[in-house]
Amino acid sequence: MSYEPPVTDYDYIVENCTCAFCGCNCDDLDFLVKDNHVVAVRHACRLGASKVMEDLDQRLMVPMVRNEEGVLTETDWDTALDTAAEYIANSIRPVFYGWSETSTECMKEGLELGEYIGAVLDNQATICHGPSLQAMQNAGYPIQTLGEVKNRADVVVYSGSNAMNSHPRHLARWAVYPRGYFRQRGRFDRTVVTMDPKFSDTAKCSDMWIGFEQNGDYGFYNAIRAVIKGKKLQSESVSGIPAEDIYELVDVMKNAEFGVLFFGLGLTHTLGKQRNIDIAIKMVQDLNAMSKWGLTPMRGHFNVNGFNIFMAFETGWAFGVDFCRGWGRYMLGETNTIDLLVRKEPDCFMVVAADPGAHFPNGANQHLADIPVIQVDIHWGPSTELADVVLPGSFISVECAGTSYRMDGVPIYMKKAIDKPETCRDDEWIIRELKERVMKLREETNVAEKYVPNPIMDLKRLEKEE
Amino acid sequence: MHYANSYLERPVVGDPHVDSDVGRLEVLNCMLNTGSDIYQGACKKRGSTLKEEYKNASGTCYMDPRDMAKLGVKNWDHVLVKTDYGEVVVSAARSRDAPHEGTVFICKGPWANTITSHETYCCSDPTYKGIHATVEKTDREVLLMADLMRWVYKKYVDEEDDDVVENMESLGERPFYNGRKWEELENHEL
Amino acid sequence: MEYILKNGIVYDPQNEINGETMDIFIKDDQIAESVSDDAKVIDVSNKIVMPAGVDVHAHVAGPKLVLGRLYRPEDSRMGVSQKTKIERAEAGFSIPCCPTTGYRYSRMGYGTVCEAAMPPLEAKHTHEEIATIPNIDINPVTLFGNNWFCMEYAREGRIEEMAAYIAAMLRVSKGYGVKIVNPCGSEAWGWGQNVHGYDDKAPYFDVTSRQLVVALAKANEMLGLPHSIHIHPNDLGHPGNYPTTVETLKSIKEIKKSTKKAAKIRDQTVHNTHLQFHAYDGTSWKDASSGADKVADFINHNDYVTGDVGQVTFDETTTMTADAPMEYDLFQISGLKWANKDIECETAAGIIPCIYSPKTPVGTLQWAIGLELFLLVDNPWQICMSTDHPNAGPFIRYPRIISWLMSAPRRMEMIENGEVHKWSHKRTGLAGLDREYDFYEIATITRAAPAKIHGFPDRGALTPGYKADIAVYDVNPNDFDPSRNPEMVERIFTSAAYTIKDGQILVKDGDLVATKPSHVIWTDVKGWEREEAQVLNEMMPFFTQYYSVKWENYQVHDHFLSNPIKVEVPAK
Lengths: 466, 190, 572
Ligand code: SF4
Ligand SMILES: [Zn+2]
Fold this sequence. Notes:
By secondary structure, chain A is an alpha/beta fold. Chain A has helices spanning about 45-50, 75-90, 105-115, 130-140, 145-150, 165, 170-175, 200-205, 215-230, 245-255, 265-270, 275-285, 305-315, 335-340, 355-360, 360-370, 425-440, and strands at about 10-15, 30-35, 35-40, 65, 70-75, 95-100, 120-125, 140-145, 155-160, 190-195, 210, 235-240, 240, 260-265, 295, 320, 330, 350, 375, 390, 400-405, 410-415. The chains are: A alpha/beta, B alpha/beta, C alpha/beta.
């Protein structure tokens, strides 16, 4: 990138805008606006800035439907929505995937439609922190808000997370550099450890780099737990890390006043998957017997956590909830998108603010080539190449307001700074329209005649079960 | 109008310059990791996925310089990466995180998708990391995103043959609308 | 729409109506003196009519709840049922999802629930959930008991600034009142510690729990808020903790109740929640026994105190409280999966599943202590129904608790046939208590008293002008002996014959016939604007430096409020 002079030609500034990129949800951005365009962004990192300063070449402006030759053709909203609604109404196993880059307000509409038609609702957690959610269901979940980290943390561990690349301001705003209430000297008051097979950009600015072997995560954490509990290691090295280094590391961790483990896809995407997180959580729990420790998964999209939270309070489960029987079913590894696609179950696929084309493995995406795909998004992306109906949404946090949840669960209301292009619509509006149209086309599925309480509601005292 | 610019033709990478073992291997057996980096992230979320820039950010195999030397590839030479799940042509470049001999890294994106594992082992999440792969030098071109999607999924072409699809006329770096060119849309006084 | 509820047997303790047969008139969303001839007549003869239930303290919406649901899919699976034309699919047992929560409260004849812990930083989340819960109105109380600003004000004795801060924060978080949980203790948990007793200090904060609570109580009365301070004292769940509880309550004695209008409805200056967890004698679980008599005795002699029980119900449930260190203690005992959430500058929360079995000594002791409290506190206006849902059990067990309260033979049966562990009578005085509640007292502890304690001017009674929130139960108290029919009592209160909310029939014969959006109730203090501005101005540099969000994004925007009922408090 070449040097660019600061932007001085703007009409006004909108302060305290929220970045709709990563799970840091930085809410301190200033947008410089001229003629209803954001011409520059202050405070954002490279990622955030590039998203806000979007590529207008590829901005989806007009609804499109594939014609017989397989070419996307521009059309009016009514036609596009009707075509999409018909695909949904005529399907028996629809999957509504995505949602992590839109607002909870939009999710609400999507859920209503999903419950009505009996769809599976799933989000990007299925390809990123799904194993983390599964692990917390096994082992627990001691977390803290990021302000706690800023104010108290003296030991910060990044494991399988390259924050410098994927959450660039995470270190600067909370975890490493800032001066917190009990950490007045900022960086100098903290010990930063990065655990990653790669000498990543985050490792480069850490005090310790633990480069355990690829797929060696589980064994490594196991060894740490053993040492925490006062055991001696039997071998000279574990997962490629010499025993002395492990002793030293455990010393640092035990003596922390307030330690935090941030973990990323490095743990969830390797072979051990949820087991890696399981044991990391248990390690944090062990450490609490002698120190104070917490953890936070480094959620990728700005509202991927929001969808999980939203689904949990609306339906009881975080993601991958299947409504095909008229009540919610949730079984990790079965009712999730990748598994469904690999099994070739879905017969209609709606993508809302997500890009499976860019992020699903070939083996899953192949099925998308065989079924109708409806895309609601703002840019022409890989998924557009697989889409049969394209509905141009609006840019949340810039052109449209809405609620999102940060990686630590702090809710943030992202305000609107400029108007959306005239031909686009808000995601929330699009999904509501679809819902209403589908409702006209088809009766609600799987409705019980009468409410039948779950037998557990009459559960007599426990001993009768025993 | 002046827009602040975050476009970057291709990621900044170091010079491999390793002299030993040059050209010793035809095929490199290695471990493939995928994931995100800041170039890929910035380009993807800006929405520039049809562009050459995305191809360079996402369709690049980051390698240890010693591995590059073994195969005799220089920065931005093309390599063919194969796994049990597929194959894809990407550029090679020196990894900023080297040394990590025996491990290669491709940013997530359509190129990596072609060769990553969809196995979830019943826990929802595919195996994006730690996949066995081979890397070899090739003359084939790295496809742009739209061309790659056409080649891999063939959803809208009546052609089954990989080679034929691979060599079809490129869909280009701009949205392909029927009847109307992008330039004719309003609000594009860039 | 107009209705006449004809010939019901009415229990309305606020109006001292005790089982009189009379008609109740409804016009639109209110109870009326009379109605026109067009009114629809609903015959409720030989049925009990009460104001709709008011839950004085429960955890139904907010970040803790979601954490529980996220990490306990097994609990969500436990309560599933298929959707109908009227209601969405249900899920959850101890921590039901939001729609289910509303439906189940409605079926029991409830109309209002206090969400008992809202951290300001995540208040938007609480409000999003409240908006998702149908059928019941919710007043969330905001957490102040470990708030850094409050701790500083208390240390410096700046009560007026504290009051201004509370006024501002109630507006910022759209909260109803002042909640205090384990004062100073959750801050200590920031370092993995706890405070012990009422006169301990949080590390680095030179202020005791006592100073903080007294200051908050003074500020609360200075503002004249409708509700008093709502406290969960220190040492929850520890054997030998009753002196801490009594000390805490004693320290409020000298504080004068506000004479302002909004504060007129209530009598108390302190509400102690889930007393059961705070009424233990002994020194460890080995020799633990009931301290209920001492706590009840104190309450019986001090009318400025009210409380709710937090009755254990013998279920597999999910404990969750802002008393995070206590949850970690539980984790070390049970080893079940432990979740925790610390919130910067404000509070912490811990969660752990818990199985209260009647076969175990501790769970049974807790069960018996809860019942003792109900039976030993003489004045039903001073003690309310609660399970501290979901902590001691899910709220759907209220009817079962009612059946225990109304039937001494049932309690004795449980003790005598070994249904419950022997600690129930060896370590408590429960076996010696033969008091039985009557329907009038039940109506008091489940609706009249909670409404009065929260200072609601529009519910908890069948007074004309009040909200038409009414429950009808299908039993004729004149030819029914609850003492001999505990199972029947449970059934009656589990499914209301009618639940009417805002004049709309939501439940008929135990089945939902309609749903409606809920209201959120919050307190807007007027007349402190200048002081508030000053306080905010003073705290802003600190806020900017040490919070993780911008002030603008910290506040709960009107967007999040579901049909708000704003209680205006002209404080000056
Ligand atoms: S760190 Fe994340 S949220 Fe913050 S500006 Fe960068 S991309 Fe946006
Ligand atoms: Zn409580």
